[in-house]
Amino acid sequence: MALSNVLEPAVSGFNFENSTRNIVLENGSEEGKIKAPTPMKTGTTIAGVVYKDGVVLGADTRATSDEVVADKMCAKIHYIAPNIYCCGAGTAADTEKTTDMLSSNLTIFSMNSGRNPRVVMAVNILQDMLFRYRGMIGAHIILGGVDCTGSHLYTVGPYGSIDKVPYLAMGSGKLPAMGILEDRFKGNMDLEEAKALVSDAIHAGIMSDLGSGNNIDLCVITKEGVDYIRPHRESIYNYKRQAKYKYKPGTTPVLTKSVNQLELELVHETVQMMETAGSS
Amino acid sequence: MNTRGLRSQLKDSVPVTGLCPQAGPYGVQDSLRRGFSSVKNELLPSHPLELSEKNFQLNQDKMNFNTLRNIQGLHAPLKLQMEYRAARQIQRLPFLPSSNLALDTLRGSDDTIGFEDILNDPIQSEMMGDPHIMTEYKLGIL
Asked: What residues form the catalytic site here (chain A) (predicted)?
């Protein structure tokens, strides 16, 4: 269908056509204000710690939408590159899309150059992308990875600010988690100590924050590879269905049944030979 | 990759081409083709990012060329801009989507993915502009 009032082709990217309408709706007409639906936030506790051989990242698994738990087994630790993983807090869709695009960009880079990406590259790409949109993309991210220069842990805020520290927590449950981390972190821990520390930090966030809950996921990144432990610790309040709720076949009585044959006639038949012989 | 804005370059950067109504042939709002206009709609952007997104590529190019001029001399951006102009002319007819492959390669955006590639892809749009009107507008006959 051709539009007759368009003089130039549409521009790709974000489309702001509806923002005037949205402002008018929110400020209200004579009938009353209409509230826009809020996006699903992850109201999270995420934490990360650098230990002797690499990085341990941890996250809870609850996603909330206002006052209801929208997803009990949400995966908040996203894959960026074989040696880089990130945890995302904030608006769920924003973190998913941003980390997906980051991952695609780094994959293109590795294919072009034949090298594994470095954590600083991921941080720079993320920083540029988030600053360009002036914080409208609500993604609070913890990036951790091991590359040829060592193990790194960064946090990127929604406006593009970064911080490089050996231990971090983000999300609505970050204050209790930071308390545990500040108390028990020491440099050069070994693996079991680091896992216990991150797990306890997330657990503190789960206990003290309404927006975090359910299970704890851990992700251990070392030079050799990645160990994604999902779930590391399950919540004791996991609800299991008491009975099966499926209907048995034959529950609905069949009243009548009629079969119509479709009359098809063969109009045209072509045969095309495939080149299956090996190439010379 | 965004260059970190050097403050000195921004003093003569692109003036924001706002949302002023495009003037018709006599310098007046063209109601037939663009509909009625309202002052509030055109003076202020309804979304804080609208203006900066509209001019993003332009501002980036300006900053990059300015930096290049300061580092390598006037000839470098001149030569690059000549190539950009040549690449920008490789297009299909105005109502058909063009791939802009040469322009993408020059800009370096052929190996990056941003929101421009995912959202609102003109190749996948459901509507098409009217071919006659768009060609006439492009040629200046309209």
From this structure: 44 (nucleophile)
Nearest to A128 among B1, B54, B113 (CB): B1
| pLDDT value of position B7 | 47
Residue-wise pLDDT tens digits, A58-112: 999 988 877 788 888 888 999 999 999 999 988 888 899 999 999 999 999 999 9
Calpha distance B133→A251 (Å, rounded): 61
Looking up residue A158, the CATH number of its domain turns out to be 3.60.20.10
Q: Tens digits of per-residue pLDDT, B32-65?
A: 666 666 666 666 667 888 888 888 888 989 999 9
A167 inside domain: yes
Cβ pair A132:B47 closer than 8 A: no
Token pair belonging to A114: 């034949």
So what's the pLDDT on residue B13? 45
The sheet carrying A162-164 orders its strands as: A77-81, A84-90, A139-147, A150-156, A162-164
Total domain count, chain A: 1
Indicate the pairing of strand B128-129 with strand A2-3: parallel
Active-site hit among A20, A42, A44, A98: A44
What pLDDT, in 10s, does the model give residues A128-146?
Answer: 999 999 888 988 999 999 9
Smallest Cα distance from B125 to chain A, Å? 9
Containing structural domain, residue A98? 45-233
Is A242 a member of any domain?
Answer: no
| A95 part of a folded domain | yes
User: At residue A121, does pLDDT exceed 80?
Assistant: yes
Q: What is the rounded CA–CA span in Å between residue A43 and residue A128? A: 24
A270 is catalytic: no
Whether B35 sits inside 8 A of A5 (CB atoms) is: yes
Distance CA B58, CA B76 (A): 18
pLDDT at A240: 73
- Asked if A80 contacts A103 with a C-beta cutoff of 8 angstroms, the reply is yes
Is residue A279 situated within a structural domain?
no
